[in-house]
């Protein structure tokens, strides 16, 4: 095999990445989920590993392979993802690309919920999941660099700026998820990088290219941070 002799600016850096959806159980056979494919988060994990980082990917249930050169942990629920991420601290940087379910059913039935004639559908009592990014963004072991995502169908930059402040992130990768056949599940992405310094609009490119550019930006930012 050819030796990869490119420089490794992230050698010695531990970076946590979350990716994919979470599955929130209703009963043994049913769950609440979303359309996240994990493609963007997995591509970011792979790109960071190519730059030499020790990448710990915490992935929800996805239909794609574990990225090469990355230590991947598989979880189902938001609570499991949060526990794994917190166990991985401290780290130099963390990238929260997962589409974490905002809510879960308060209870998960031990037995399959049956249709009962005349009773109608079950009323699911939903409760809010913990915000993993916000927890890490305000953690006593906060990584020097915290990157979040914002999936929005309207007011993209305004909502991303609000998330930047509220969640304690350094960057928000803002994503317009409104268009039909768009970013969710697709191979291309058009993002804006929102930080305190302003908004950087990137042209539409493949998710792999977004990942490569984001990894380079993270390497650039971590250069000034002493190990
Ligand atoms: N996030 C998280 N844990 C959650 C919800 C979101 O870590 N329980 C992270 C996502 O991984 C992403 C960022 O927070 O990096 C923003 O997610 P998003 O769904 O866009 O924002 P929310 O704060 O959940 O707000 P809303 O869905 O109402 O827009
Ligand atoms: Ca959300």
Automatic annotation (TrEMBL):
Keywords per UniProt: Decarboxylase, Flavoprotein, FMN, Ligase, Lyase, Magnesium, Metal-binding, Multifunctional enzyme
Catalytic activity as recorded in UniProt: (R)-4'-phosphopantothenate + L-cysteine + CTP = N-[(R)-4-phosphopantothenoyl]-L-cysteine + CMP + diphosphate + H(+); N-[(R)-4-phosphopantothenoyl]-L-cysteine + H(+) = (R)-4'-phosphopantetheine + CO2
EC nos: 4.1.1.36, 6.3.2.5
Biological or metabolic pathway of the protein: Cofactor biosynthesis; coenzyme A biosynthesis; CoA from (R)-pantothenate: step 3/5; Cofactor biosynthesis; coenzyme A biosynthesis; CoA from (R)-pantothenate: step 2/5
Residue numbers binding CTP: 102, 112, 130-133, 149, 163, 167
Cofactor binding comment, as recorded: Binds 1 FMN per subunit.
Record's keyword annotation contains tRNA-binding: no
Cofactors that this protein relies on: Mg(2+); FMN
Region (Phosphopantothenate--cysteine ligase): 15-227
Domain DNA/pantothenate metabolism flavoprotein C-terminal positions: 10-220
Transmembrane segments: none
GO molecular function: phosphopantothenate--cysteine ligase activity; phosphopantothenoylcysteine decarboxylase activity
Family label: In the N-terminal section; belongs to the HFCD (homo-oligomeric flavin containing Cys decarboxylase) superfamily. In the C-terminal section; belongs to the PPC synthetase family.
Function: Catalyzes two steps in the biosynthesis of coenzyme A. In the first step cysteine is conjugated to 4'-phosphopantothenate to form 4-phosphopantothenoylcysteine, in the latter compound is decarboxylated to form 4'-phosphopantotheine. Catalyzes two sequential steps in the biosynthesis of coenzyme A. In the first step cysteine is conjugated to 4'-phosphopantothenate to form 4-phosphopantothenoylcysteine. In the second step the latter compound is decarboxylated to form 4'-phosphopantotheine.
Name the UniProt record assigns to this protein: Coenzyme A biosynthesis bifunctional protein CoaBC
Organism annotation: Mesorhizobium ventifaucium
Portion held of the full protein: 179 to 405 of 405
